[in-house]
Specification:
hydrolase; 107 residues; alpha+beta; AB_hydrolase_1; AB_hydrolase_sf; 4-stranded mixed sheet; AB hydrolase-1 domain-containing protein; AB_hydrolase_fold
Length: 107
């Protein structure tokens, strides 16, 4: 990983407005929640957290990124403020892929 980053330069793009709006996408078992940063007209960037995390992981990263994008960070099902799946339903990778599709379709 370090070798891959050797040629990367740090580019300063200015501070992003820290205004954050809440996101809620209805799903059959409740809702997928998240946060949105950036202008409404900005090119959308979907931000997904890791397995034992939530969208709050992006709170300190996003202010450092270019300000002309619209960053959408979601809490995947069962994480953060999103609804848990019904009892007996597995938290499997294909289910998360379908959840991401629901978010994209709901935007």
């Amino acid at each position: 990983m370090i070798q891959a980053l050797k040629g990367v330069r740090h580019v300063t793009s200015g501070k992003m407005n820290l205004a954050v709006s809440e996101l809620s996408i209805p799903v059959p078992w409740g809702e997928i929640r998240g946060k949105v940063w950036g202008p409404d007209h900005g090119r959308p960037v979907l931000c997904l957290h890791g397995w034992a995390d939530n969208c709050g992981t992006f709170n300190t990263l996003l202010p450092l990124l270019p300000k002309d994008f619209r960053y959408i960070a979601v809490d995947l099902a069962g994480h953060g403020r999103s609804s848990h799946r019904p009892p007996g339903v597995l938290y499997a990778f294909p289910s998360y892929v379908m959840d991401v599709r629901r978010v994209v379709d709901g935007m």
